[in-house]
Amino acid sequence: MPEALSTADQRGHIELDVLRHQHGAARAARDRVAEEIPVALVFNGISHAVMMATPLDLEAFGLGFALSEGIVERASDVFDIEVSCCAASAASAASAEVQLTVAQEAFAALKGRRRALAGRSGCGVCGVESLSLLDLQPARIAHAGAAADIAAEAVHRAVRELPGQQALMRETGGVHAAAWCGRDGAVLEVCEDVGRHNALDKLIGRLARRRVDTRDGFVLMSSRASYELVRKAARLHIPMLATVSAPSSLAIDIAAQAGIRLLCFCRGDGFVEYPAPISAEAGPTALREPR
Questions:
Q1: Residues involved in catalysis
Q2: What is the pTM of this model?
Q3: How far apart are CA 20 and CA 16, in angstroms?
Q4: Which fold has domain 152-274?
Q5: Who is most buried in 9, 215, 233, 263, counting CB within 10 A?
Q6: What pLDDT is attached to residue 132?
């Protein structure tokens, strides 16, 4: 049997010996690498998804996944969350299991969806059984327009503050971050993971447990703006999503349908808003920063 680990033992990275090459010379060194393990999400005793994730904040991850994937409508529909972790052994890799007990109505709906998601750290819809199961028609969020008056300086402040709160990124250089920011741009919560959507799920779970009013801020991601990030934000009625890199066309479409303000290429003192607000005073063309 693999050695059981508590979630408190998890650091999110491993240390190993490497050979560092620089300026034509090589030297032995110790390096820290972001940990990525399979995490099984089990609802009422039945495994629903296996995601490749960093073994930090797994209770928040389970709750956030349940909410952002529409498995439950509210945090109170999750009655209990138990996390068990197993260390690597000669016979098996490290792994974790998140067991969630959810309301019977939610569980019945989950079984009806027949979704078997084979998770990957870079893709949020791999394993969906058919195109008909893709949810690409979000309802307009309850707080549409709530972020319209968030100033550019607030976005710039959040972008400046985020790197200082990315502890695992400083250790490994290989993870994404999802941050909850106040309307003034102050970075209030940060979750990290090898997968951008995992990081957002962890953040959503943490916000739900703390009953944060999502009208009072926005999410900043250290990644590109992909479809699943915007779709998850829409399910939680998050009025604004900002990312440091480019959006996809589907992300833009989903944001427009849901009434989410989408800001991308948030770097330095600039960003691009998709699509341009009707009342925008800027000209018809926007300068994009190099990718």
A1: 123
A2: 0.85
A3: 12
A4: Cytidine Deaminase; domain 2 (3.40.140)
A5: 233
A6: 52
